[in-house]
Amino acid sequence: MKKIKYIIIILFLILNSDLYSDYPGKNWLMYKTPEEAGWSSNKLKDANKLYNQMNASAVMVIYNGNILLSYGDVNRRFLIHSIRKSIISALYGIYVDEGKIDINNTLEKLNIGDNDSLTETESQAKISDLLKARSGIYIPAASEIESMKKNRPARGSHNPGEYWYYNNWDFNALGSILEKETGRSVFIDFENHLAEPLQMEDFRLSDGFYNYEVHCSKYPAYLFKMSARDLARFGLLYLMDGKWNGKQIISESWIKESIQPYTEMKSSANFTGYGYLWWLSKPFHQLGAYCASGLGGQFIYIIPKSNLVFVFRANTYQDKFVSDSTRIKFMELVIKSKTGKPKSNPKLKQLSVSKPLSEKFKLKQTDLKGLEGKYLFKIINDTAFAEIKLNRNELFLKNNTFGNIRLLPQTKNKFIMEDVLWNLEFVPNKSNKMYSIIISYKEGKKIIKLIGKPIK
Q: What pLDDT is stored for residue 309 in this prediction?
C-alpha cells in the first residue's frame, strides 16, 4: 500500500507542478523570474536596455536547459548563413562515430574534382583538411562574398594542411562529399539526425536549399533558414556534450575533437582559433567558450563553464546586422548578473512567441497553378531571378538568396512572404494572362518596391 501511495504522490507532483529538466521537451520552458535560475532581475536591466540598441531580430539565453532570457521573434526563420558550417560538422561527426565516413580519406580516393580539374597535389587534401579550412584548394565557389574572392590565395601557393583560409570551396565540397557518401541530401540528414531527435519546433525540409553557381563550381552552397529557438536546441546539444535526453546524438569525443584549435588566431579580436568548422571565442575564452558564426551577427555561443548557450539572430533579409561590441557587452552583462545557484525546483512557464501568419484567403489549386512562373528583377545595377512554384497545394517563391519562401494569400492576388514578411502582389497584363509581380517592404519610413517582369 505504501508503494502505491508514493507512486500516486509522485504522479500528483508531476501533473501539478512545473517539470524541471536539463532539456526542453516539445516546447521550450522559461524561468518565471531570473531569480528562479539564480540571476538578478535588477542587474539584468542593463542587458535588457542594451538588447533594444542591438539591432537584433531575436536573442535567447539558455541556462540549465531552460530559457533565462528571450527577446524578439524567436520562432521566425532567418537565414543562418555560415552557421551552416557548424551544422555540417555535426553531421560528419555522426557518420564518423558510426564508422561510415573516414575523414582521413583523400579527395583523390573519393573521386572529387570540379569544373577545373584538381591538381595532383590538391587531390591529396583529406576530408579533415576541409573541416579545418586547410585544403590548399583556391578556386571559385558558390556563395562567396567579395572579401573571400579578393583574399583568396593564389592557386598552388600552399599544400593541403599547411595554411588556413576561410574557404567556401572547402565548405561546399564537404556538403557534396557527405551527400555522395551517404546517398541522402544534407537537409534530409539534418532533419533525421538533428531536427527530429532534438524536437525542433520550426524547421521544415523546405527551409533548406541549394545555391548553384555552376559557372564557377559544380558544388552548391547548402543553405538554411532557421529560428532562434531551434538553433538554441542545437547549441544545447553541444553544451551537453552531444547527449539529448539520455541518447548520445554526437559523441563527446567528436565534439572535443571539433573544438581543438587546429589554427591559432593571435591577431583576431573575436576568435582564438578554428576547429572543425567551429570558432574558439576570444571573449569568455576562460569559460571554455566556442561558437558558430554567420554573416550579420548570427551566433550560437556555447559556454561550458557557465552552463550557458547564447543565440543571436539578425534580419539580413533587410541588411540588419548585430555589431560585435554590443553582442559581447550584452553577454558580459548577463554573466555578471548571476547572483547564486538556481532553486532546486525552479518555477517555469511556457515560452511566449509571436503568432505565426496564416492564410486569410483560400485559393483553389487551379488559381494557384495559374500564378506559377519565372520573373526577372532589376535591382539598381544588378538583376535577380525568382520562380513562383506550386508545391503540395502551397505557393512558394524560390530564388538563390532567400531559398523557398511560402506565399500566404491575403486576397486573390495579394500575398505575404512568410519569414521575410514582405508583401507580394500579382498584377495581370491587359489580357489578364501574364502577370508581373510587385514586392514591397518598409525600410525605415520608406516603402521599397521591386518589380518582377515575367520571363516566357
A: 98
Give 72's Cβ-side CA count (13 Å radius).
24
* Distance from the first to the final alpha carbon of the chain: 79
All cell numbers assigned to 442: 518598409
Per-residue pLDDT at 21: 67
Q: Enumerate the domain spans of the chain.
A: 78-336, 365-455
- Give every CB contact of residue 58 below 8 A, 6+ residues apart in sequence: 71, 72, 73, 74, 76, 78, 227, 228, 311, 312, 313
Could you give the CA distance from residue 308 to residue 430 in angstroms, rounded to a whole number?
Answer: 59
155 conformational bin, left if phi > 0, alpha if psi -120 to 50, beta if neither: beta
Residue in the block written with cell 553582442: 327
Instruction: Give mean pLDDT, residues 390-403.
Output: 90
> Is the four-CA dihedral 258, 264, 265, 266 of positive or negative sign?
positive
C-alpha cell at 82: 555560415
For residue 365, is it left (φ>0), alpha (ψ between -120 and 50) or beta? alpha
Half-sphere exposure of 373 (CA within 13 A, CB side): 19
Is residue 419 within 8 A of residue 77, CB to CB? The reply is yes
Assign 381 a pLDDT band (cuts: 50, 70, 90): low
Which CATH architecture describes the domain 78-336? 3-Layer(aba) Sandwich (3.40)
Helix pair angle (168-182, 83-97), 10° resolution: 40
Answer whether CATH 2.40.128 is correct for domain 365-455: yes
What band does 37 get if pLDDT is binned at 50, 70 and 90? very high
Other beta carbons within 10 Å of 442: 12
pTM over 0.90, yes/no: yes
